[in-house]
Design a protein that fits this description.
single chain; 0% strand
């Protein structure tokens, strides 16, 4: 779906479509279809870009508590810059959950966020 088509959707419809896409990604991973998961990533990015263009990226914040680990991982990634503390908490919980492959991805994301932090003040700086 192009950004132009997304532009015609109401604000509330975008997070729903984004979550639906994340659920499909999670199902693809559960079936061992990494390529299928990867094919869905551009759709997520387009929705995130449209929400950001509208100044409404925060509408994805409830997804940080979604039941599906892939949706939570996607939400933490999408909100890492705008809501870093909440994103870090979600990533920490996912990393500790042991749910594969999202736990490993969350741990890697935390490591990358830690490397990009110019003034680290300890391992729990986001709490």
């Amino acid at each position: 779906m192009t950004t132009g088509r997304l532009g015609g959707l109401a604000d509330g419809a975008l997070p729903a479509r984004w979550i639906e896409t994340g659920l499909k990604q999670g199902a693809a991973l559960a079936a061992g279809d990494v390529a299928g998961h990867n094919r869905l990533s551009p759709a997520l990015r387009r929705i995130e870009q449209e929400l950001a263009r509208r100044g409404r990226l925060g509408l994805l914040a409830p997804a940080l508590d979604h039941a599906n680990p892939q949706v939570r991982l996607n939400a933490a990634r999408a909100l890492a810059a705008s809501e870093p503390a909440a994103a870090r908490r979600t990533l920490k919980a996912l990393a500790a959950s042991g749910v594969a492959p999202q736990a490993a991805a969350a741990a890697m994301d935390l490591w990358m966020l830690g490397k990009s932090d110019p003034k680290p003040d300890g391992p729990d700086r986001s709490d």
